[in-house]
Amino acid sequence: MSDVAHEGTSGGPPEAEDTSWRQRYWKKNLRLMITLLAIWFTVSFGFGILLIEPLNNIVILGFPLGLWFAQQGSIYVFVILILVYALWMDRIDDEFGVAERNDEGGYK
Amino acid sequence: MTETQFWTFFFIILTFGIYIVIAWRSRVKETKEFYVASQGVPTLANGAAIAADWMSAASFIGMAGLIAFLGSDGSVYLMGWTGGYVLLALLLAPYLRKWGKFTVPEFVGERYSESVRIVAAVAAIVVSFTYVVGQMAGGGIVFSRFLGLSIEWGVVLVAVVIFFYAVLGGMKGITYTQVAQYTVLIIAYLIPAFAVAYQTTGIPVPQISYGQILTELDSLSVEFGLNEFTEAFSGRAGGQIDVFLVTLSLMLGTAGLPHVIVRFYTTKTVRGARYSGFWALFFIALLYLTAPAVGAFTKLNLLQGVQGQGPDSLPDWINTWAPTGLVTVNEDVETIGTVSNIATSGADLIVNNDILVLASPEIGGLPAPIVGLMAAGGMAAAMSTAAGLLLVISSAASHDLYFRVFKKTGASEKEQMMVGRIAMGLAILFAIWAGINPPAFVAQVVAFAFGLAAASFFPILILGIFWKKANGPGAAAGMLTGLAFTATYMIYTLEVFGTGANDHILNVSPEGIGAIGAAVNLTVMIVVSKLTAPPSEHVQEMVEEIRYPQTRKAPVRS
User: What GO biological process, any one, is recorded here (chain B) (predicted)?
Assistant: First the structure.
């Protein structure tokens, strides 16, 4: 399942260490980052500022929806975005063997 | 002594006692402990410390009132001061933590050049000082309003307590007192908010229930000559483009402020820095999600309380707070017809923004202990922010300037520690002086510190991490043009330093110019970096290395 399973320790001279994993790791990181930042922009600048007036025509629990995004919704999403980033990066780190784990496999 | 004063004394003495005990237990001996708490702060504690560091006297006391009167456009502060943490957590924190070391200028120095480091150190000191003065003055005002002490004694008392734990414990002492201060301030903020929400709507969750009162609040606001709370782009003169730019400036500035960034150096691991970002924003969001609700409820209570009343039959809290000058009533009218938060508006009832939080327990009819708790919360907010800023000032002055410019080699560990402590002591003395005699322009400048941070630090940090070819001349040119552009527009549109205020160009307010300044910085930096020699192999290798949390081992997953 992991795309590094057949790399690394499987022989070969040490000076020819395969560093192509670095690009793949970085690309995955960037893709995650850009996706999350696109959501960040949409809920705050999109719903809370650029589209606030049309969204305000929809009213939920007394809140015009645009106002709700500007004062509440965007902040909830921000908190969730950072949590998703941290959790997802844990998975990517493990996949590429760069997680900060001690010898027993627990986090430092 | 009134009952309120008794409870205020009780809570202030109790909380100060806790801070001093924590300070004594976390005193330090080494520079690594002093500057970055030995990089051993657990993520949850670091998150709470960042939150306390971040939320200043202005967030605690002023923001709800500001939003109450700005209405929908108050979102610039709500989104601006929280959205920046997404940028911090995703773009800066993990990489700066991997790189390690003690200060933000130190990263800039190693990544670009020594001269950029000195510019960055001076910028960090200037930005932090404009902030700290506001905190000291804020703490002094809380003392004087609640306890009847003079502002001078209030400032000195605040400074003595901060001195005790900042000089003894450095970053370690500051971090653990900030955890306690966060607890105090969030309890003090949430209890009255939940109580008022319950009284008004029967639902004790203000973040959800303030929707129910918005229609009534809109019609009452219009009746008293104020803008509707829910109408977008009615609170700020610049309209949509201005709201957009101010929000962006505050976000970029948040991600560029040295006293926040440096907290991410204190975690054990890169992973810890990521989770610290989450906990920090979680703790900050508890207050920021509540602030607009507090603003809306208190404004509604206030307007209902004065509706149809004459100057002689106003609610009690107005008389209680009148001596502070935060509330002014026009005695010549029959009934109160207009309300405003602007001192020069000529309205029948003029209330200062700060009163909406400070007097919210009284406006909502809550008991005296809660008023006392409120005072302790305001103090906690002011002190925690001041301490974090003082650490940045002392570390920039000692670590980045003194040991780089005046005494380049041969400083022993003991000597470095001593200079760090002396710099902290001097910074506090200066803060006392400035807190008692705040320079006239400080109040205005604080609001613009974000624009300056956005136009100077943010672009050079981002490109420094994500673009290997960004070099020293590019960073220096970008930072200087970004700063010059932003500062020039601020001086052009504001009455500071004795200059006249000119009209805003294209509706861009001086609070929003930082976003454009950041774009100028970024562009200049890219162009100059392309035209000059790329950084050395060693530097490019360093930029490569900070991408990976640690050296590669066999993947753990099965």
Answer: carboxylic acid transport
Buried b (16+ CB within 10 A) or exposed e, B409-433: eebeeeebbebbbebbeebbebbbe
Do B385 and B466 sit in the same domain of this protein?
no
Say if the Cβ atoms of A62 and B215 lie within 8 Å.
yes
Q: Report the interhelical angle of B239-254 vs B442-466 (nearest 10°).
A: 70
pLDDT tens digit sequence for B426-449: 888 888 888 787 665 555 666 678
Q: Quick one: B369 and B508 in the same domain?
A: no
Q: What is the mean pLDDT of each run of 10 residues along chain B (558 residues)?
A: 82 90 83 80 91 87 87 92 95 91 87 89 84 78 74 82 82 89 93 88 89 88 87 81 92 90 88 94 96 92 86 82 80 85 84 82 80 87 88 85 74 80 87 77 68 90 94 92 89 68 76 92 96 92 89 63
Among the partner-chain residues A53, A76, A93, the one whose CB lies closest to the CB of B232 is A53
B390/B414 same-domain check: yes
* Beta carbons of A4 and B555 less than 8 Å apart: yes
DSSP A18: -
Chain A residues 78-97 with CB within 8 Å of chain B = 78-79, 81-83, 85-86, 89-90, 93-97
Domain limits of chain A? Answer: 34-96
Q: What are the tokens at B143?
A: 């003392």
ipTM comes to: 0.91
Q: What is the CATH number of the domain that holds B418?
A: 1.20.1730.10
Residue B216: closest CA among B201, B198, B205: B201
A70 CB within 8 Å of a chain B CB:
yes
Select the residue of A21, A63, A86 nearest B214 (Cβ to Cβ). A63
Tokens representing B382? 């002011």
Q: Are residues B141 and B106 in the same domain?
A: yes
Cβ atoms B515, B453 nearer than 8 A: no
- Domain carrying residue B528: 440-547
Residue A86 has its nearest CB partner, among B211, B278, B556, at B278
